Amino acid sequence: MRVAWDITTLCMPATGIGHYTREALYATARARPDWKFVATSFAGGEGTARMRTALGDMPTNIEHRHVKLPGARFVRRGISSAPLPALEAITGRVDAFVDSEWFHPRQRHGKRISVVYDLIPLRFPDWVDDKTRRFHLRTVEGLGERADTIVCISEATAGDVVRELGIPRERIAIVRPGVDPAYLSAVPDTLPMLANSDYLLAVGTINERKNLGVLIDAFSQIAGKYPTMRLVICGAPDRDAARITQLLRERGLEQRVITLGYVADNELPGIVAGAKIFVFPSLFEGYGMPVVEAMAAGVPVLASSDPSIDEAAGGAAVRFDPRDPNALAGTLERLLGSTSTQQDLIRRGREHAATCGWAASGEAFAVAIEETLAGHREKS
After folding, report:
1. Is residue 308 part of a domain?
2. Residue 150 contacts residue 119 (beta carbons within 8 Å)
3. Range(s) of the domain holding residue 57
4. Which end of the chain is more exposed for a tag (fewer CB within 10 A), N or C?
5. For 158-206, how does the pLDDT look when each residue is reduced to its tens digit (9 = 90+)?
6. Does 81 share its domain with 186?
7. Are the C-beta atoms of residues 47 and 11 closer than 8 Å to each other?
8. What integer pLDDT is reported at residue 260 of this predicted model?
9. What φ, ψ does residue 162 adopt, rounded to 5°?
């Protein structure tokens, strides 16, 4: 068995999609050590450097074929939109190809698997810029004709693919993200500015969808009762950053809320493990990996009640209406005042996180490829 797998997203700044791409490939390769994998990527100089950093210790049955060239983004787009098959010129003949939004050329032989993380640009266009939306729409256009199997990272995303793209459910396989083992063994790594302080923690890019304004409003209601408590936000600044900065000024919370910006993968587990409570106020997710990571690190979790986060929460989080800061403030107060509830959430969270290993994800992905090759999923 020979499988090509595009990993071009690893050439870009690290995101949840990048983590999923790498870990799903590695886990599938470990699940099927007798298969051969060809990992493909296109990037310029900066992206090539990121790729080298991101790859880490690859399983030995993965061969990496990287193309470094100026203007890689335009070359990828041109090859992906070309009417003639081009995959084999890069990978040789393969039995299956796991494509990506960034690189999805036609192929002469084998089957095609496409991964869908979410349909946010299609469902909620106001949350993304026009460039991102156009890129996304180009990718999902014709997905039903291009792919034999669509792998979705959650049942919630699968439901969106059925409703929004009209693809039958029987052509979709679910492969949920796993948890980085670093969270399972994480120990608190107290930041110097947090000495002698407990802190609430939120992790996510600072954009409208992550809904950090509601969390800040809720924190402002309880901050006076917990004078040593801080709120820490880890996430790269994005479209909502200016509004969040202004909101902190208006609420007088500049000294109580610490925004760390993007935090490297090797530093984040310790920060998560040190939190008193992890709060995830997102309005919508493809899955919600930070929820399970916090549970794995032994932290009580408060999570948005949006149904898209149900699978990540797994019945082991306290849920709240993400549009109601008053409700969130009350929920925070109740949880902070109940050590027994915190301990119960920690126990249930660890139990749930233990079911979310990458080994299970790799096996699920391998089965999806096998079933595709066996013709269990056919294009309509």
Report:
1. yes
2. no
3. 2-178+358-373
4. C
5. 999 999 999 999 999 999 999 999 999 999 986 787 777 899 999 999 9
6. no
7. yes
8. 93
9. -65, -50
Distance, in Å, from the CA atom of 316 to the CA atom of 118, rounded to the nearest integer, reads 23
Residue 164's alpha-carbon distances to 52, 123, 124, 157, 208, in angstroms, are 36, 8, 12, 10, 22
Q: Which amino acid is at 53?
A: T
Q: How far apart are CA 212 and CA 357, in angstroms?
A: 28
Query: What is the DSSP secondary-structure string of 135-184?
Result: HHHHHHTTHHHH-SEEEESSHHHHHHHHHHH---GGGEEE------HHHH
Please indicate, yes or no, if residue 46 is contained in any of the structural domains.
yes
Looking at the structure, do residues 142 and 166 belong to the same domain, yes or no? yes
Q: What is the pLDDT of residues 22-75, one digit of tens each?
A: 999 999 999 999 999 999 998 888 888 888 888 888 999 999 998 888 888 888
Nearest to 176 by CA among 198, 151, 196, 200: 151
Query: Do 36 and 86 sit in the same domain of this protein?
Result: yes
Distances 290 to 217, 269, 312 between C-alpha atoms, Å: 21, 10, 9
Q: What is the tally of structural domains in the chain?
A: 2
Q: Are residues 128 and 192 in the same domain?
A: no
Using the Cα atoms of residue 286, residue 287, residue 293 and residue 295 in order, give the sign of their dihedral.
Answer: positive
State the Cα torsion 231-236-240-245 to the nearest 10°.
Answer: 50
Instruction: Measure Cα distances from 256 to 193, 203, 225, 240, 248 in Å.
Output: 11, 17, 13, 19, 9
Residue 268 is encoded by which pair of tokens? Answer: 């984040």
Q: Do 152 and 251 belong to one domain?
A: no
- Give the CA diameter of the chain: 66
**For 75-96, what is the mean pLDDT?**
90
